[in-house]
Amino acid sequence: MTMVKDIDVRGMQHCETTTLGVLLRHEGLDLSEPMLFGLGSGLSFIYWDSKGMGFPFLGGRVKPFELTRNLAALLGLELLVGETTSPRKAWHNVAAALDAGRPVGLQLDSYHLDYFGTEVHFGGHVVAMYGYDERNAYLVDTAPQGGAVSTSLAGLARARAERGPMTAKHRSFTLTAPGSLPSPRDRIIPAIKSCADAFLNPPIANLGHRGIGKTAEQVPKWLQRSDNPREDLPRAAVLMERAGTGGALFRNLYRDFLAECAQLVDSSHLRTGHSLYAEAATLWTQVAALVAAAGESGDAKHLVQAGSVLHELSRIERDAMQALSML
């Protein structure tokens, strides 16, 4: 049996920030989940729909692993990433780090994990691995999934080898902090401004505040868009409000990040952004409830109301990011 010593197995709300927390605490850097999410410029928005999709997808964060890359670059951390098509090489990449006493982050498909509560394919799931024996891998996942958990080595291999949307080629990674630990306080403003710039200037209309506005136009049609609205709409609501988002499609996490920053940086622009994201978080929870109600009742009035709230959200989040861009 190989087990990395002194691992803090705290599970958080979101998978990638949970993994980052495990890896960074092992390096002596203990940051809150909102701070990890915000310093990684994690907040975003995407509305995605195509003929091949059963139902539209709403996303509230940057694509998988971009948060990790952003955070490592911002804090000057050494990020070593292994990717390969060879299962044998993939296992060697992980085992070598664990044998050397270092926890490893893994991107994989959660469907194949023995402990996972929902049997759906999601190739952008991230976990921290801190040990293994002849049969099992020992992982840290989110608090809702159990925190410190284990899965069979065979299941882990299948999860890492899966191919499909958002998957990576057996991706594993480690983080190493420099000799003198970085000061997150000094990096707050660059992280916020980078996030605001991307949100305010999306390359296509499906992203950022423009994407929220587009969603406002499309949501009232969702009963007609779905072949099974009693399943599709409540599932969409769960993905917004729970399913590892920290609530309100990641807006709760960003609100709390801005609140934490406001204790460290005295800025009216920061306080404005925090106030507006507090309002936005409440409204996203309202949207999720309206979408769920429409699926359960079949009454389109809930979706019309959700569309109105989304129009307001597009404005609120644009105004918030404009204020934050002036930091």
Automatic annotation (TrEMBL):
<dbReference type="Pfam" id="PF14399">
    <property type="entry name" value="BtrH_N"/>
</dbReference>
<feature type="domain" description="DUF4872">
    <location>
        <begin position="155"/>
        <end position="324"/>
    </location>
</feature>
<protein>
    <submittedName>
        <fullName>Lantibiotic ABC transporter</fullName>
    </submittedName>
</protein>
<feature type="domain" description="Butirosin biosynthesis protein H N-terminal">
    <location>
        <begin position="14"/>
        <end position="142"/>
    </location>
</feature>
<dbReference type="InterPro" id="IPR026935">
    <property type="entry name" value="BtrH_N"/>
</dbReference>
<dbReference type="Pfam" id="PF16169">
    <property type="entry name" value="DUF4872"/>
</dbReference>
<dbReference type="InterPro" id="IPR032369">
    <property type="entry name" value="DUF4872"/>
</dbReference>
